[in-house]
Amino acid sequence: MNNERPYLSIIIPAYNEQSRIADSLYKVKDYLSQQSYRSEIIVVDDGSRDLTTEVVKFIDIYGKETKEQEEGQLMENIKNVGKGFSIARGMIKASGDIVLFSDADLSTPIEEIEKLLPYFEQGFDVVIGSRKMADSEVEKKPWYRDAMSLIFNMAVRTLSVPGIKDTQCGFKAYRREAAQRIALLQRIYGFGFDVEHLYIARKQGFKIKEVAVKWEHMDGSKVDPIKDSLRMFTDLLKIRWLHRAM
C-alpha cells in the first residue's frame, strides 16, 4: 500500500463484541476492497472483558499475510469508559478526509455510506444516517426502543438540536476537520454523545445533513432501556451547561 492519505476512515467502537466483530470486520473489509479510494479501519476496544481484541488482531494478521487487505488499527481503552469516549479517540486518530463511525453490529449496513458521501461534495460537514425519514428502511425495532426513541427525540428537539429527527443512529460521517474539532470539544462519553456532537456542530457553524438509511435491530444491544434512558436525559441537561460559553 502507498502512503497516500486515505479518503475514508471508519471507526468501530467495540465492547465485548467477540461473537460478532469478526463478521462485521469481514463485511467492512470486503466492501472497502471493492472501492477505488484508499481507506482505513480503526477499531476502538472499550475495555472489553472477552476476546474482542484477540479476534480483531487475528483478522488483521490473516488479511495482511494473504495480501488481500491492509492492516487496520486497534486502539484499546485501559478500562470501560463509554462509546462516546471510544469514538472521540478514533476521530482524533483518523487521517481520512471523511470520518465515519459505525456500530459494531452493522445494524446499518456499511454499503449505506454511499448515501452519505455525495452530500460532502455539496458542502455539508456532518452527514448522519437517520431511521426517522420518510425513505428510511427500519426492520425489527423492539417496542421499547421505539418508545425510548420517541420520548428522547422530543426532549432533544426541545433542549438541544431542533430540526433533527434521529440523533441516535450509530452511523454518522464527518469531514476530518469537523470530526477532530468536535471530538476535542466533546465532554459526554456515554450514549448522549451523539446529541453533543450535533450540538457542537451547530455551535461551530458546521452544516449538518440528515439522510435516510437502512437499519435492522440486532440482538445483543448494550442499551439498558431504563438506566440508559435516565443517563441520556441527564446528558441533555449537561450538554447545554458544559457548552454554555461556546
Automatic annotation (TrEMBL):
Pfam families on file: Glycos_transf_2
Q: What is its EC number?
A: 2.4.1.117
Question: What is the source species?
Answer: Thiothrix subterranea
Main localization (coarse):
endoplasmic reticulum
Pathway(s) annotated for this protein in UniProt: Protein modification; protein glycosylation
Q: Which GO terms describe its molecular function?
A: dolichyl-phosphate beta-glucosyltransferase activity
GO biological process terms held by the UniProt record: protein N-linked glycosylation
Domain Glycosyltransferase 2-like intervals: 9-181
Membrane topology per record: Single-pass membrane protein
Gene3D superfamilies, per the entry: Spore Coat Polysaccharide Biosynthesis Protein SpsA, Chain A (3.90.550.10)
InterPro entries xref list: DPG_synthase, Glyco_trans_2-like, Nucleotide-diphossugar_trans
Alphabetically list the UniProt keywords. Answer: Endoplasmic reticulum, Glycosyltransferase, Membrane, Signal-anchor, Transferase, Transmembrane, Transmembrane helix
Q: Which family does it belong to?
A: Belongs to the glycosyltransferase 2 family.
As for subcellular location, the record says: Endoplasmic reticulum membrane
This protein is called what? dolichyl-phosphate beta-glucosyltransferase
Q: Which top EC class is given?
A: transferase
Q: Please state the span of the N-terminal signal peptide per the UniProt entry.
A: none
Name the chemical reaction catalysed here. Answer: a di-trans,poly-cis-dolichyl phosphate + UDP-alpha-D-glucose = a di-trans,poly-cis-dolichyl beta-D-glucosyl phosphate + UDP
Superkingdom field? Bacteria
